[in-house]
Write a structure and sequence with these properties.
Residues 66-124 form the EFCAB10 C-terminal EF-hand domain. The chain is mainly alpha-helical. The protein is built from six helices and two strands, in the order ααααβαβα. The protein has a two-stranded antiparallel ribbon.
């Protein structure tokens, strides 16, 4: 059973999404392997702060080209669509925590590349928002 102090600490971490912030910073460091990781993390926090105030997209591990590559791997026959299960698994693998359960094409079980990329970018943005926008 957690002590009152441990409970308060856990609630604080959850409220301010500290663990998600650290997880995302560590992912960015490991992906980019900067020469000076402390400076890099400081710069990423500054970018997050600026994006929060300007309403723009913050730092992300994935670009449009990366998402095109992922889609190409999922669609080796170049059918121009993937299944809903592929879509769901790919977004979860990319780190999208809250994905659209009913994207365009779900009824036909054919998710287009444009839909995949749009949903991936929106999902990644929402995931990054959760670690730098804390509730008031």
């Amino acid at each position: 059973m957690a002590s009152e102090q441990e409970q308060a600490a856990q609630e604080y971490l959850e409220k301010h999404r500290i663990l998600e912030l650290m997880e995302n910073l560590i992912s960015l460091v490991l992906f980019n392997k900067p020469e000076n990781p402390k400076q890099f993390m400081s710069e990423q926090l500054e970018l997050l702060k600026k994006s929060r105030h300007s309403g723009t997209r913050g730092p992300s591990l994935f670009s449009n080209n990366n998402l095109d590559t992922v889609f190409g791997i999922l669609d080796p026959a170049d059918r121009k669509y993937i299944s809903y299960d592929q879509y769901k698994h790919a977004l979860q693998t990319l780190g999208v925590r809250e994905l659209n359960e009913c994207p365009d094409g779900v009824n036909e079980d054919k998710i287009s590349q444009d839909t995949f990329k749009t949903e991936a970018m929106e999902g990644l943005l929402k995931s990054s928002e959760t670690f730098y926008k804390s509730p008031s």
